[in-house]
Amino acid sequence: MSDETPICSAKGCRTAAEWVLAWNNPKIHTPDRRKTWLACAEHREHLSQFLGVRGFLKDVVPLAEWESAP
């Protein structure tokens, strides 16, 4: 893994990211704003649930697809 390899956002995880979790906190962000967390395969569900319970999760997209989007 190079220094430029995106890594998972889960606490303590150093695994390469495979997924982008796009989210927004409606109390502080405009509706079109998207913040992102990165997730490895192991932590995708856990991070998605964390954001989903709070009503923040907007989309889960493979990292390669996110990077190639215009």
Count of DSSP H/I helices: 2
Strand % is 15-25%
**C-alpha end-to-end distance:** 26 Å
Poorly predicted runs of 5 or more residues: none
State the secondary-structure class: alpha+beta
What portion of residues is helical?
10-25%
What's the alpha carbon Rg, rounded to whole Å? 12 Å
Can you give the mean pLDDT? 94
What's the total number of strands?
3
Order of helices and strands: EEHEH
**Biggest sheet layout:** 3 strands, antiparallel
Outline type: globular
Number of domains: 1
Chain oligomer state: single chain
Strand order of the largest sheet: 2-1-3
Outline the structure in words:
It comes from Streptomyces silvensis. This protein is an alpha+beta fold. The chain has one domain (19-68). The chain is 23% helix and 23% strand. The protein has a three-stranded antiparallel β-sheet. The N and C termini lie far apart (26 Å).
Quick synopsis:
By secondary structure, the protein is an alpha+beta fold. The protein is 23% helix and 23% strand. It has helices at 44-53, 63-68; strands at residues 19-23, 35-39, 57-62.
